[in-house]
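FORM 7B: Structural annotation worksheet

SECTION A. Query
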Amino acid sequence: FLIFHRYFTWAYENALREECGYRGYQPYWNWLAYRESPSKSPMFDGTDTSLSGNGAFRAHNGSMAGSVFLPSGKGGGCVTEGPFANMTVHLGPVSPGIDGLPLNPGGPFAYNPRCLSRDLSDWTSQHWMTPENLLNLTIGAAAASVRTFQDELQGRFKDRFVGTHTSGHMIVNGEASDMFSSTNDPTFYLHHAMVDRVYWLWQALHPREARSIAGTITFLNNPPSRDARLDDLILQEPNAPNRPISDLMNTLGGPFCYIYA
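SECTION B. Predicted structure
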């Protein structure tokens, strides 16, 4: 999870430069800034320099993050303001968390043009994007090992704890609530840059654990599989060359050359 998304986000930034002429760097979404009301942040305020704002109001019965119910916000429909108003997305949905977003009738890989939808959630942000949760990840009990770190980051749904990673998806909601097609929403890359920043901080604060990994080679260990090794490949083609995990552990090694402010 951690290394795959580090490499995937880097590949996206690289594509922006090489294919689109972008001259900047990959920004990250500081979860704690405007955590009380994300819609008021420069990222979501709907201006021309934002990533667009909320979706139009669509009555719906909230959302599910795993087994945790999240109340509906003031959106749910198509984004109407900012640079991604009238944007068309093409793949998915496969497994949306928000109520009322229909599955792709042709299957997960079928062409399914539709608008970009969102339902910005102050409630989700206020509950889980907290300084206490970030401190726990980086220097608290959850920071004890890479396994406890990534499990806390992703969420303990049996305990009704959504975690900061899942919260980011559910704060944006709509397309972002579907883990299979959440990349349809441009906020995905800023969110996962912040995930990588928190991981980078954890690595810097825990150098003895920094090159350790935890987990198996199948998603949620289904079907059951062996533990991952540092020589296992992260499959990224055609976005970037496939590389072993060991090449991607250090943001100043392998293909990378970056740190976070």
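SECTION C. Observations
DSSP finds six helices and eight strands in the chain. The chain has a mean pLDDT of 96.

SECTION D. Sign-off
Analyst initials: ____
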